[in-house]
Amino acid sequence: MDENRVTKLIEELNKTLGNDISNLQPLYDCKLELVDKKNELLKSLSSVNSEVPTKISEAIKTSEETTLNILEYKEKLIVCSEKNQEFLTSVEPVRNHLGVLVDKLRKLEATKEYLESLRTVKKISNDLSNCNDSEQSVLLMEQLYELHKQYKNGHRGEFVTETTHYWYNALRDKLSIEFEDVLKQVKWPITSSNISLTVSVPQEAFNKFRQIVQYLLQIQMPVEDNKRNDEEHNLSLPIRLMIVPLKKRFTFHFSGSRRTNRLDRPEWFLTQILSWLRDHLPFLAKYLQPIVDSMDMKINVQQEFTCGLMQLAVDRLYSLLSTISGDDSLFSHAIDECLGFDRELESIIGFPLLPTCPRVTTVLTDARYLIRWLAVEKKFAIQKIDEMLRSDEWLSTLGSKDIELGEEPEGIPQGADWLVSLLQTLHDRYSSLPQPGHRLQFLDLQTELCEEVRLRLTQLIEEEIRLWSSKNESRGVEGVSRLLSMLNVVHYFRQALLDWTHAVSYLQLYYYKKQFQCFTEMQHMPIPDLDTTPTLNSHSILSPQVSSDEASNLTRRGSLSLSQVEADAKELALQEANNIHSELINDNENITTILNHEESEPDIGVFEELPRLLGRIVDDVCLLLCDDLVLEIKAASRDYRNQKWHYLPEVEDIQCRSLTSALCAPLGALSTRLLVLRSSLAPELFGPLWRAVAKEIDIFIFEEVVLECWWGPGGIQQFHFDMIRNLMPIFAQYTSSAEAYLPKIAESCKLLTMLRGTALLLRETINGLHSNGSLSSNTKPFAELSILHLTENEIIRVLNQRTDMNMN
Questions:
Q1: What is the 3-state secondary structure (H, E, C) of 22-50?
Q2: What is the rounded CA–CA span in Å between residue 668 and residue 660?
Q3: Are residues 525 and 548 in contact, defined by beta-carbon separation less than 8 angstroms?
Q4: 680: left (phi > 0), else alpha (psi -120 to 50), else beta?
Q5: Do 782 and 762 meet the contact criterion of CB atoms below 8 Å apart?
Q6: What mean pLDDT is reported for the chain?
Q7: pLDDT above 70 (res 627)
Q8: Burial of 537 (0-12, 13-18, 19+ CB in 10 A)
Q9: CA 326, CA 364: separation in Å to the nearest integer?
Q10: How does DSSP classify residue 596?
C-alpha cells in the first residue's frame, strides 16, 4: 500500500476508536463490518465466474453456424453465376438481332420526325404563298419562327433558316408597301407644310397604322438571327421603315453634286438631323409608343429613331472627314460644328442616348482623326497665343476706363482673359467626349499649352525687367507700368489654374490619370500571393504614389470597368471639392507667408507644378518691386539720417510744427509709388507688396535713424511728428492700423517720448533682471507698455540714445 492510503486508513481508525483507548468495542464493530463486506465480495465474484463461460460458449456456437451458412450461400452463388453465363451465351444472337432492329427503329423514327418537320415547314411555306390575309400571314410567320428556334443545326437548320429569311423578307416587303401608304395618310414624314396636321391623325388612318405596326413588330426577326448585325438592323422594323423616306431625302441633299452638299458647310446636314428630331419625336411619343407598350415590348421608339438618324449623320461625317482631313480650316470647322451638334442634341431630344447609339464624337475620337484633331488644336492655339502676345491690347484691362491715381483696378487684364478663354474653350470642347482616355489626351495638350504660356510670359517679363533696369530715367512710375500689367496677367492666369485644379471636372480627370498610371506601372509587377494582397482602396488612387500591393490587386481584378471608374471618379471629385476651402489672406499676414507659394501649395492636381512655377514668377517680380522702392527711399533719405536731432529746438505750438524738409522727397516718392502700384496691381498682389515695403522701411528707419542718432527733446518731438503724423498716414490708406506694420518705429517713439523717470526706472529694471538672470516673458516690464517687437538690448540702446538719460 502506498503512503497516502496508509495515512487515510490510520485517520479513519483513529476517528472510529475515539479518545478512549481502553474502550475496544468500536474496534470489534469495525472488524465485523469488514468481514461482512469481504463475504459479499466473494459471493459476487463466485456468481460472475459461473455465468461468463456459458455466454462465451453460446457466442462461439452462433459464429460457427453463421460461417457454415456463408460457405453454403457462396457455393450456391457460384452455381447461379455459371448458369447465368450459360444463358447469356445462348441468347447472345437474339440480343444482337434485337439491337439491330431497335437501331433501325430509332433511325426510322428520327427520319419520320425529320420528314414531318420538313413537311410542316413546306406546309407553312405553301400557306404563306396562298395567304392574302396579313393577319393570317403573321400567325404563320410566328409558327415558322418557333420551328426556326427549334431547329438550328445541320441541313435542316439551314433549310429552316433560309425559308424563314425568305418569308420574312417577303412579308416585310409586302407590309412595307402597305406601311408606306399608311405613312402618307398620317402625313409622315413631317415637313414644314404638314407639321400642323400631325396634331390630330384621322382615326381610320391611325387604326390602319396601328394594325400594320403590330404586324411588323410580330414578324420582326431577332437580332441574333439577323445576318446584318449593324446599327440600322438593330432597330425595330417600324422605325427602320419610318426612317427610309428621311434617309432618301438625306442622301438626295447631302451626297453627289447637290448644292447643299458642301464640304465647308457640315452644319447643314447636322442641322437637318436636329430639325427632323425636333419635328418627329412628338409624333412617335404620341402615336407609336403606346402601340409598342400595348404589346409588352421593351422598346423606346424615340431612342431608336434618334439612333437611326444619328447613323445617317455618322456615316456622312466619316465620308466628310476622310475628304477634308488635309485642310486645317475645314477640319477645324467640322469639329466645331460636330461638338456644337453633340451639345445641342440632348437638349432637343430630352433624354440620354443609348450606350450603343452612334455619336458624332465617336467619329472624332477615331484614331485617324483624333491625332489630327489634337494637332489642329495645338496649331491654332499656338497661333492665337502668338497673336495675343503681339497685340498692343493684351496688357490693357478688360472693360477698363480711366483710373485715377490710387484707385484699385477694375476687371482683369485682357491678356489673362484671352488665355483663360482659350484654355476654357479647349476644355469645353473635349469635356463631352465619352472616353476618359481621350479626355486625358486633351488634358495633356492643355497642360502643354499652359507650359508654353508660362515660358513666353517668363521671357517677356525678363526682357521687360532688363529694359526697365537699363533705363534709369524711366524707373519709378511710368517705366514700370508694362511690368505691372504683365504681373497681373501672370497672377490672374495662375489663379485660374488653381480654380480649375479644384473643380470637379478636373478632379475627375486627375483620378482617371492616376488610375491609368497605376495600371501602366503594374503591367511589369509580379502578382503576389492572393491571400496576402490587401484590397485596393479606391480613395488611395488620388495619392500621387501607388503601392505595389494596390497595383497587384488591380491586376487580379482584371480590366477597369468604365462605368465603375466614372462613378468612383465623380464621388471622389465631389469629396475633394467639398474639402477644399479658399484661404483668405488676413490683413496682418507676414510677407514671407504670402508670397512664398512653393511652401503654401501642394504638388497636386492635373496641372502639377504649373501654379507653383507661376507663383515663383509673381514672388520674384514683387520682391524686385519691393527692393527697388525701398532702395529709392533709402537713397532719398540720406540727409534725413544725418540730421542733428540732439540740437533741434522744441516747438511748443503744435500748429507751427512741420515735416522735416529732408523727409519730403522720400515720403513723396513712397506715396506716389504706392499709389501707382495700387492703381496698377491686383488687390491680391498689392496687399502683400505694400506690407513688405512697410516692413523694410520699419527696419531701415529703426536701425539707421533711431539707433544711430542722439536724441534731444526737440529732435524727439520732430521725429515723433514725422513718423506718426506723416509716414504712418501713407500706409493708413491701405489698412486701419498702420502701427501694426511699422512696429519698431511705433515702439521707438513710445520709448523716446517716455517720461525721463519712467525711462530710467525701465532701464534699471531691465538691467537688474539681466544681472539676476530672471528676465522671462512673464516678467518683462515693457510688456505692460505694449512694447512687444523690440528686444531687451534694443530697448536699452534706444533709451541710451536719449541725451537726458546720461544726465545726473
A1: CCCHHHHHHHHHHHHHHHHHHHHHHHHHH
A2: 12
A3: yes
A4: alpha
A5: yes
A6: 81
A7: yes
A8: exposed
A9: 15
A10: -
Question: Using an 8 Å Cβ cutoff, are 246 and 276 in contact?
Answer: yes
Which residue, chain included where needed, has cell 523694410?
696
- The Cα-based distances of 218 to 61, 144, 165, 214, 750 in angstroms read 85, 12, 14, 6, 101
Q: Give the dihedral of Cα atoms 204, 206, 212, 216; nearest 10 deg.
A: 180
Q: What pLDDT is stored for residue 550 in this prediction?
A: 42
C-alpha cell belonging to residue 480: 514700370
**Grid cell listed for 554:** 488591380
Euclidean distance between CA atoms 519 and 704, whole angstroms: 63
C-alpha cell belonging to residue 518: 497605376
For the full predicted model, state whether its pTM sits above 0.85: no
Q: Nearest CA to 734 among 404, 406, 405?
A: 406
3-state secondary structure 478-517: CCCHHHHHHHHHHHHHHHHHHHHHCCHHHHHHHHHHHHHH
d(CA 114, CA 108): 10
Q: How far is CA 732 from CA 407, 594, 626, 694, in A?
A: 15, 20, 18, 11
189 prior amide bond cis, ω within 30: yes
CB neighbours of residue 501 within 10 Å: 19
In this predicted structure, the answer to whether residue 610 has a pLDDT above a threshold of 80 is yes
- For 413-430, the pLDDT digits (tens) are 888 899 999 999 999 999
Report the C-alpha dihedral over residues 455, 460, 466, 471, rounded to 10 degrees.
-170
| For range 608-633, the mean pLDDT | 92
Distance CA 703, CA 18 (A): 113
At 119-177, the pLDDT tens digits run: 888 888 888 888 888 888 888 888 888 888 888 888 888 888 888 888 888 988 999 99
Helices then strands, counting H and E runs in the chain, come out as 29, 0
Torsion-angle region of 350 (φ positive above 0: left; ψ -120 to 50: alpha; else: beta): left
Burial-class residue 242 by CB neighbours within 10 Å (0-12, 13-18, 19+). buried
With contact defined as beta carbons under 8 Å apart, do 232 and 312 qualify? no
In SS3 terms, 429-495 reads as: HHCCCCCHHHHHHHHHHHHHHHHHHHHHHHHHHHHHHHHHHHCHHHCCCCCCHHHHHHHHHHHHHHH
Which of 344-358, 369-383, 441-455 is least confident? Answer: 344-358
Euclidean distance between CA atoms 630 and 624, whole angstroms: 10
SS3 651: coil
Q: For residue range 56-100, list pLDDT tens digits in order.
A: 777 888 888 888 889 888 888 888 988 888 888 888 888 888 888
Are 115 and 151 within 8 A, CB to CB? Answer: no
CB contact at 8 A, 804 and 713: yes
Q: What is the maximum alpha-carbon separation in the chain?
A: 155
Residue labelled with grid coordinates 449623320:
313
> Which residues, 6 or more positions from 143, have their beta carbon under 8 angstroms from its beta carbon?
124
Locate 23 and state its grid cell.
Answer: 474502550
Could you give the CA distance from residue 450 to residue 186 in angstroms, rounded to a whole number? Answer: 57
